[in-house]
Amino acid sequence: MDRKNYKIKDIAAMAGVSVGTVDRVLHNRGDVSEKSRKKVEQVLEKILYRPNLLVSSIGVKRKITLAIVLPSHQQGEYWEQIEKGIHQALYDFSKIRTETKTFYYDQFDLYSCRTAYSQALEYACDAMIIGPTFREETVFFSRKLDEQGTPYVFIDTLIPSCNQRAFFGPDSRMLGYIEAKLLSDVIGEEKDIAILHAVRSGNESSLQTVVRKAGFFEYFDTVSSKNRFLYANYYSQDVEQSWKEFDRLFSGENDIGGAVLFNSRSYIFASYLEHHGITGVKVIGCGVTQKNIEYLKKGYLSFLLSERPDVQGYQSIKYVLEYILYGQHEQIIKHTPIEILIRENIDSLF
Amino acid sequence: MDRKNYKIKDIAAMAGVSVGTVDRVLHNRGDVSEKSRKKVEQVLEKILYRPNLLVSSIGVKRKITLAIVLPSHQQGEYWEQIEKGIHQALYDFSKIRTETKTFYYDQFDLYSCRTAYSQALEYACDAMIIGPTFREETVFFSRKLDEQGTPYVFIDTLIPSCNQRAFFGPDSRMLGYIEAKLLSDVIGEEKDIAILHAVRSGNESSLQTVVRKAGFFEYFDTVSSKNRFLYANYYSQDVEQSWKEFDRLFSGENDIGGAVLFNSRSYIFASYLEHHGITGVKVIGCGVTQKNIEYLKKGYLSFLLSERPDVQGYQSIKYVLEYILYGQHEQIIKHTPIEILIRENIDSLF
């Protein structure tokens, strides 16, 4: 188990080529003859070489510049954890000199996003990491990045028909499917299920919500339950209006046994349950935010799914550094973990 | 976000002391006056210094020697993942020259464990990592390590009344509690629950199983369900005998709706269900082994709890390296994550 750390000159000697040649192969730059490349690659394979950003016996002299475009956020919210993962990776790989600049936008305001995108476009960088919300706007922006030749990576939400180098985020369809499975398992086949929909003003539903909802109903299509589905809207900024909608759910003949939400605002429904002293409704949502954790611990949420935003942030930085330093040419789509959280295991996970 | 990497000479200059003094404070060795130590510590606090094994701008010249004592294992078994975490940490921290020697024992054979312990005791090392099974034997061994002055760390199972520097493993009581909670939620209040007990020959139950079972019943003490509990033994090496026991469970008036196992051999019960075409029994177990994953995917296990053996292995190496290089004097007990796995999220987690 005692490993040998091969240095670039060891590899050069073993391959019978110059140090410069090994360097060019490893860092994927400059001209190398097919014959020399093969020799080096054979040695790398033999010694099970994999580039290690953490050790990097191959010195990195240059400075890498990254632009990051993200929704702005409050403390304890979902995107804060994405940034935490980003910071952790920059810390772990701080042997590599990296400069980052972050451009924030209001995820409920298309014009704010447009401004952030224009500013990011002006910033000369080696690569860009984007947490997108608005589909059309992002497609348009990505075309400009393609023209510039700036490589970019998406996190959290995959926007189709872009040329991103990589994507790190949960499988949204599967996330909705798991929400359905767990809810169905714990409420049985008779009760009504409330589907709660976040209303955004001025634009369509987020792409992610649409896909999660599809995954949710895909599960119920496979089981022959008698559950009825009831729908209600809610509004991030308008509690009064949301609660009116919830009042309607609990009126009349309805027998609500469970409820599902597809974004990180489950606490809005949970606070309604708490205020009205309603127990016995199993609620499942996603997003391990401070407020959601609070209601999970109080028992007003039964399950939370975590999309591991920290992992998304960490992996995106690791990927772009490897991409820039070592070159990785396949486009990758990496689905990050979907964790199931209940009151009893959440403390062990954070 | 662009961080400065402080070198030891920067810290010395800021504190107005010699490089040697900073080195002694950081590595917790040699004599340093109280006054100088304070000066250095103030600077470290100001620059938010934390020792970073990954970067280590403070060079590590010495070689660190570690002994590791673990149960032997087959491919795809629980302890293989502990070793995977150990290897990953050694790789990530390969800037630090580390030599490890692993001593294996048969976890079902006390004498084999005794032999491994004696051999490890002869091996001169800076620290030891122990995955214990036998309580008395381990207490006895730990006394000898105390006499030698060898620091040691437990993983997986905490043995009470030892002077370990640290423990990395799941909270066993909570693990049993979560098994009960999930099982209870999905089978309802009427069905019978099978409690499956692993028989070990020649020695008492493992300490871990006892604690997990206690956690399991602690949950049922808090709910007023009508579930009946039925007990059966099983034998790792004797399928025929195990299946006889299971036949008894499914005979007569019994109405088995769920089953629980407390170690990583859930597949033994699952294979019985598969062979007899029994569906509709919700089984919960722990240990993300190849065989368990196979039966989770086939639907014969409903839930698996993962004790994250990879995290246990990784953290134990990271801890001992930090302990040896930087000195950390509080004894720590770090409960590793308890993850809830179902067929639908397992692929995203591995």
TrEMBL record, chains A, B:
Keywords associated with the record: DNA-binding, Transcription, Transcription regulation
One GO MF term attached to the UniProt entry: DNA-binding transcription factor activity
Residue ranges annotated for the HTH lacI-type domain, each copy included: 6-60
SUPFAM superfamilies: lambda repressor-like DNA-binding domains, Periplasmic binding protein-like I
Keyword Transcription regulation (UniProt): yes
Xref: PROSITE patterns: HTH_LACI_1 (PS00356), HTH_LACI_2 (PS50932)
Any Pfam family: LacI
Protein name, as recorded: LacI family transcriptional regulator
